[in-house]
Amino acid sequence: MTTHRPWWKTVLGIALTALMLFPVYWMFNVSLTRTRDMRADPPHWFPWDPTIEGYTAALDQQLPALATSLFIGLGTVVLTLLIGLPAGYSLAKLHPPGARTIDFLLLVAQMIPAVVMAMGFYAIYIRLGILNTVWGLIIADSTVAVPFAVLLFRAFIAGIPGDLSAAAQIDGAGNWRTFRSVILPLSRNSIITVALFAFLWAWSDFIFASTLSRNSDAIPITLGIFRYIGNNTTQWNSIMATAVIASIPAAFLLVLAQRFVAAGVTAGAVKD
Amino acid sequence: MSPTRTDAIGALGRTDEAAADIRSAAAPRPHGRRRGQRSRHWAAFAFLAPLIAYLTAFYAYPLYRNIELSVHDYTPRAFVQGNPRFVGLDNYLDIFTNDTFVQALRNTAVFTLGSIALQYALGLALAVFFHRNFRLAGVLRAMFLVPWLLPLIVSASTWSWMLNSENGIVNAALQAFGIGQINWLTSPDTSLLAVTIANIWLGVPFNLVILYAGLQNIPKDLYEAAGLDGATPWQQFWRVTVPLLRPVSAITLLLGLIYTLKVVDIIWIMTTGGPADASTTLAVWSYREAFGSGQPDFSPAAAVGNLLILIALVAGLAYVRLQRREDHR
Description:
The complex is a heterodimer of chains A (about 270) and B (about 325). Chain A is mainly alpha-helical and about 270 residues long. In chain A, about 75% of the residues lie in helices and about 0% in strands. Chain B has a two-stranded antiparallel ribbon. The interface between A and B is large, with 111 and 117 residues. Chain A: It is found in: Cell membrane. Chain A: This is ABC transporter permease. Chain A: It comes from Micromonospora deserti. Chain A: One of its GO terms (cellular component) is plasma membrane.
């Protein structure tokens, strides 16, 4: 439409963003506040006298939990890609019988509440003896990402021109070679999107962690923070410092991979 | 991305003409073609097999176990020994007659409908605002994603501290306006409101992104035409934006409904469903029965969970039907 860009909109936009992000600012502020200023009335709006005692305490106590979460996140990414990529290729290009049924099942799968899955997994894991293990959590966390991954890969791979795989097959490539040498390299962007979301969801998971791994020696960071709140309601600077550290993957995603994020959010919901 | 992709297309594009020649030469042989099709079915199945195995083992089986839990009387000991008593639908009857049920149902309705209505309204207002391009619009819109990307435990614990009765910033700010201390999380009158506010904050980014993408698919010339006809921005919003955004809006609201029904963590972390049952939704109730105390009571929890699936399925079927209808357009 018009090409002039009024400044008042930018000002309003900044004000709205500041309001929206106030809780995030508050998390930073509290994480740097000294313990004795924590209960000041009124609360300090800015950490004039910042301390890093919260961060040293957080790193001291939560480093193993961060490592566990990192491992679980990466494991979930690997499992999700291993299941999602071939399935996406098959559904998009090889026209398997029953493709519509699979589509429907994947949609239904996304509606099942995590608490229900947690109970089912609990009942299964207790028999298999994999309750309180990282492997059990990797499997459970992947159930959030796999339906999303299959639907996204399917949509993306369907957009790769059929001529490409036809040409590869004439050159003697079987389906496996076509998948590996043509489809996979061309799917790089969608692989990044899926990997980022699978990691973030596994990293952020609370329900599976608090049910399937609550008596584990190696607890993920979300459970670490939760226990922190339960045991220790005086040191909110350490709790918020841990929260800041736990938010690093999200910040990373936002800065370095914003276009992949937007692609992931809109995938499946909006078609053009 | 772009160099890799064009290179590949360029390299393979040349062999493509040759491929077409060979294909047309080979086509008249029906026998070979049928064999090709059959092997393609096999390949299709082989690539799909991991997913099918996965869905069976990690979706169907847990769900089956969940139904099994709900029709037996599982005590912690029966869990390990595997000899629970079959009780039919007793668990379901128990939850329907439980005092918590009515309260949880009401809370679920208030929490879910309140959340999605306000998330949608705020998301749409922001989407329209950001749609009119201005300086920094892209950066600010990206910043709005932050609440959605943060781990839930992070946002929930931050909100808990902000809403703290004595030391929270929210009460401190209200005090400046002469409003006395509100016990957001510890009073039965406000705990549901408090978790709903936090949940709305969490959901606005998702609504903003989807509705913004929807707005971008509305052709610009429609607004130009409306503008030439003398329509005010307000009229343009109601006569152009709202009707053309209808399919996207419906899907956004339905997805919001399905997601919000399942919410446990934000409520559990902030109030554990309390005080008493004041902020207990069906999902939280199910979680609390199964995992919330030292005495796990899986059978009623599973029954509540299955009821929740049923509600989500009804919403989900509406979603699928809606998508089908959009596909046929």
